[in-house]
Amino acid sequence: MSAYDTAVAGYDTSLSEEQIAIRDLARDFAEREIGSVVMEYDESQEFPAEIFKKMAELGFLGVMIPADYEGAELGAVEFSLIVEEVARVDPSVALGVAAHNGLCSGHILGFGSGALKEEYLPRLATGQTIGAWGLTESGSGSDAGGMMTTARREGGDWILNGSKNFITHGTVGKVAVVIAMSNPELPPGKGASAFVLDKSMEGFYASKKEDKLGMRCSDTSSLVMEEVHVPGKNLIGDEGEGFKQALKILDGGRISIAALSVGLAQGALDAALKYANERSQFGNNLAAYQAIQFKLAKMATDIAASRHLTHQAAFLRDTGQDYTLAASQAKLFASETAVRCAEEAVQIHGGYGYIKEYPVEKYYRDAKLLTIGEGTSEIQKIVISRHILGY
Ligand SMILES: Cc1cc2nc3c(=O)[nH]c(=O)nc-3n(C[C@H](O)[C@H](O)[C@H](O)COP(=O)(O)OP(=O)(O)OC[C@H]3O[C@@H](n4cnc5c(N)ncnc54)[C@H](O)[C@@H]3O)c2cc1C
User: Fold this and answer.
1) Going from the N-terminus, what domains does the chain have, and what CATH number goes with each?
2) What span, in angstroms and rounded, lies between the C-alpha atoms of 135 and 118?
3) Ligand 1 pocket mutation pick from 166, 247, 260, 383 by most atoms within 8 angstroms of CB
4) Of 223, 231, 297, 379, which is the most buried if we count CB atoms within 10 A?
5) DSSP state string for 209-239
6) CA 334 to ligand 1 center in whole angstroms
7) Is 374 a catalytic residue?
8) Ligand 1 site residues, Cβ closer than 6 angstroms
9) Nearest to 177 by CA among 227, 250, 128, 126
10) Are 98 and 214 in contact (CB under 8 A)?
11) Which atom of ligand 1 lies at the shortest distance from residue 212's CA?
12) Side-chain half-sphere of 374: how many Cα atoms within 13 Å?
């Protein structure tokens, strides 16, 4: 492998042969099936249903779901590799893969009863149903505990009222995990519960679809609940455990956003390397100038560090160790790396980086979500500082 290939492909000496095969399968799929339609979906903001169907056939929609529920039964490292490779080609498709697997399915898999798993996981793993996950509300984002959505008991059922904001797959998702205050008198750590909702339930519907800066083919909308009758069996785990479950789900989600960030940054570096070798100014390729070389060197080094942090967090998760700190560190560093790399890639392209014919324009728009979703950079710093200060 040449130095150029090494930088472009990324490398990780700790991967097994099976993991490398999964990474290569995802890389090949993304280049072959997504590469040519990235900008069409970006412009139309249409959810890429056909791509999701094909990803389902490869097991990418049930990555960590056990085979008993028709999943691929892989670990967090393999999930990170798949998300990274899809993101390298189209970060907005990767966002859907991350949310469907890590948030919706992950919550049911991690905390749901056997009956809930049997009812929902096979449909989610095979892509028959796309999943959403609703924690954020218009008045409560970083401070998710300030949620106003309520769940009150009525006989054996729960009645949900409220709305969730900025929900990935809010429109296309037929199933959603929703966190609501089942006892508003208590703090969220004890008063919030999680439920599986289905669009067939009366009063549960998607509202405003967002028109976004980036990640445009990822479907983002509000979810509204008006007197929705949710059967008692759709409570996930115990009453009052919803907020704690959600925080755990966000820990895992942060590893996948870190992987997505690595893929986006790698895609931006690939494009910048190619362009720097092709574009000539003042009689030389841009790559001959040290100012450009140093940008490329910094990008490649930050990406390698981000990838290691991501795989470390995934490894801790796969081996049953505490990964909250590692996931926050990976998410913080990788997402900020993605934003920086996308910006540098545009800079290396000059004016051509600012127009849509070159892929870096889209990476630049897509990247910003990564320092915001699933906990902003500021929130990651709060999580990390609490850990290192021992709070
Ligand atoms: C495209 C997209 C997809 C999303 N998908 C989902 C989804 O599927 N499910 C879901 O539940 N949510 C989803 N979200 C919501 C996302 O998780 C929130 O936007 C995010 O958590 C930030 O919340 P907020 O937007 O309300 O910002 P705010 O919480 O209002 O924060 C605004 C700013 O203040 C800073 N800030 C807040 N509190 C503090 C503090 N204590 N100290 C220092 N700074 C602080 C923040 O870091 C940020 O810079 C999505 C958002 C987007 C844009």
Assistant:
1) 3-125 (1.10.540.10), 131-240 (2.40.110.10), 244-389 (1.20.140.10)
2) 24
3) 166
4) 223
5) EP--SS-TTS-EEEEEEEEEEE-GGGEESST
6) 17
7) yes
8) 99, 133-136, 141-142, 166-168, 212, 215, 220, 369, 372-376, 378-379
9) 250
10) no
11) 1
12) 27
- The preferred substitution site among 171, 376, 378, 379 for testing ligand 1, maximizing ligand atoms within 8 Å of CB, is 376
DSSP codes of every residue in 53-114: HHHHHTTTTSTTS-GGGT-----HHHHHHHHHHHHHH-HHHHHHHHIIIIIIIHHHHHH--H
Report yes or no: 29 and 54 within 8 Å, Cβ to Cβ.
Answer: yes
Residue 143's CB is within 10 A of a number of other CB atoms, namely 10
Contact 84, 73 (CB under 8 A): no
- Report, as ranges of residue numbers, the positions in the chain whose pLDDT lies below 70: 1-13
Atom of ligand 1 nearest to the CA of 169: 8
Catalytic-labelled residue, pool 239, 278, 374, 378: 374
CA-168 nearest atom, ligand 1? 8
Ligand 1: distance of its center to the CA of 257 in Å? Answer: 14
pLDDT computed for residue 12 by the predictor: 65
- Pairing state between β 157-168 and 220-230: antiparallel
**pLDDT reported for residue 32:** 98
Q: Give pLDDT, residue 2.
A: 47
For 266-304, write each residue's pLDDT tens digit: 999 999 999 999 999 999 999 999 999 999 999 999 999
Q: Rg (Cα) of the chain, in Å, rounded?
A: 21
3-state secondary structure 120-186: HHHHHHCCCCCEEEECCECCECCCHHHCCCEEEEECCEEEEEEEEEEEECCCCCCEEEEEEECCCCC
Smallest CA-to-CA distance from 180 within 234, 123, 130, 135 is with 135
> pTM (2 decimals)?
0.97
What is the spatial distance between Cα 252 and Cα 263, in angstroms, rounded to a whole number? Answer: 17
